[in-house]
Specification:
Blueprint (H helix, E strand, L loop, with lengths): L2 H30 L19 E8 L6 H10 L12 E8 L2 E8 L3 H4 L11 E7 L6 H14 L5 E6 L9 H7 L11 E5 L14 H13 L1
Parallel strand pairs: 1-3, 1-4, 4-5, 5-6
Antiparallel strand pairs: 2-3
The chain binds guanosine-5'-triphosphate (GTP) and magnesium ion (MG).
The site of guanosine-5'-triphosphate (GTP) has 22 residues, from α2.
Length: about 220
């Protein structure tokens, strides 16, 4: 085995170890000290008992904007800087009788291997796409369809993110690029244009729409 191949194996092994450690830390965190950001209304202590717990899985290639979208959903503000997610990133919000755990798994190639393991614990899948990253759309399409083949019913929200960028594909173009016409007819799916920027707060690309759609979908389950 050449040095390049050995390095490749080493980086894969390291990625797997980081992901496994991340999962363990997540479980420990959830068990002992869960206290994430809250969606309105804020709750008094003990009120959590009345809430329905729902998990939303947030996936997509690295750099698509998953962490930015989650930050925006929980705080209604854009994030100045985001670092690539190593392992997972979780945000908890409460709204309309639900406690919603939004769980992002990092999108780098070595972490995608673990994505499908979280599908069966989730109530909705949110798949974030960088609409301006044309060269990687085929990879996004392939990863999305692999996931969907694993679970035929999970409701799906695709976010056509970074609509503020020049050259961003429209939702119509993305519908075609992602081959959404081939999805099984029983699958409920939505394709929303988004932009995780302050300027988008008052526009049709607002992430606020994602919040209301999520609540609507979760209420139906
Ligand atoms: N212009 C623009 N930039 C965005 C938008 N959303 C995210 N970004 C930027 O894109 C970069 C990557 O965003 P992240 O949120 O870290 O991406 P991610 O999907 O979480 O990536 P991984 O954690 O590596 O899987 C950051 O520099 C963000 O500021 C958007 O809607 N518009
Ligand atoms: Mg991230």
């Amino acid at each position: 085995m050449g040095p390049a191949a050995a390095l490749g194996h080493l980086s894969l092994a390291l990625g797997a170890a980081v992901a496994a450690l991340g999962s363990l830390l997540f479980i420990a965190w959830r068990t002992y000290c869960s206290d994430g950001a809250r969606w309105e209304p804020l709750l008094a202590a003990g009120q959590e008992l009345d809430l329905c717990m729902r998990q939303v899985l947030v996936l997509g290639l690295d750099g698509a904007g998953k962490s930015s979208v989650l930050h925006y959903i929980s705080s209604e503000a854009p994030k100045d800087r985001t670092a690539p997610t190593q392992g997972f990133n979780s945000v908890q919000v409460c709204a309309e009788g639900f406690q919603i755990d939004l769980l992002e798994l990092g999108g780098s190639q070595n972490l995608r291997f673990y994505w499908n393991q979280y599908l069966r614990h989730s109530h909705v899948l949110v798949f974030v796409v960088d609409s301006a990253d044309g060269p990687r759309l085929p990879t996004a399409r392939q990863e999305l369809h692999c996931l969907l083949a694993e679970d035929l019913q999970l409701p799906l929200i695709i976010l056509a993110n970074k609509q503020d960028k020049s050259g961003a594909l429209s939702v119509v173009e993305l519908h075609q690029e992602l081959a959404l016409d081939t999805l099984n007819s029983q699958r409920e799916f939505f394709l929303l244009p988004t932009s995780a920027t302050q300027a988008a707060l008052a526009t049709a690309t607002s992430i606020r729409h994602v919040k209301s759609l999520l609540l609507e979908l979760l209420a139906r389950l």
